[in-house]
Design goal:
The protein is α+β, with helices and mostly antiparallel strands and about 110 residues long. The protein contains four helices and five strands. The chain has one domain. Helices cover about 45% and strands about 20% of the residues. The protein has a three-stranded antiparallel beta sheet with strand order 1-3-2. The chain has a two-stranded antiparallel sheet with strand order 4-5. Strand 4 and strand 5 form a beta hairpin. The protein is elongated.
């Protein structure tokens, strides 16, 4: 495989801004493709992540509208826009108020 299409694992951590745990989850969920290759300098096997799969790993689904979008920071991005985030918060607040009203005896 073309080395320009690969990231070494420590580099991947930087490019994705994620903790190691999240990276492992993504590998298990097959969102990141790991390739092992011999390092030309040392001759040892090294693990690389394909750049294409890094792009895919950043694709996240919005929790409110279900739209797929490219996350700037995968751990923080649950909503595709501020609007969706506010709508979700409002919906939660409204649901809580409604539940409170239901619990109250008439």
């Amino acid at each position: 495989m073309d080395p320009r299409k690969l990231y070494t694992l420590p580099q991947t951590l930087k490019t994705l801004h994620v903790a190691h745990q999240t990276l492992c989850k993504w590998v298990l969920a097959e969102r990141l493709t790991i390739v092992t290759q011999k390092d030309p300098k040392t001759g040892r096997l090294r693990a690389y992540v394909t750049k294409e799969s890094v792009k895919n790993a950043r694709r996240v689904t919005c929790r409110f509208c279900g739209k797929d979008f490219q996350a700037k920071h995968p751990q923080l991005a649950e909503y595709c826009s501020i609007r969706c985030r506010h709508k979700a918060i409002y919906a939660r607040v409204k649901a809580r108020a409604l539940a409170k009203r239901r619990r109250k005896p008439a």
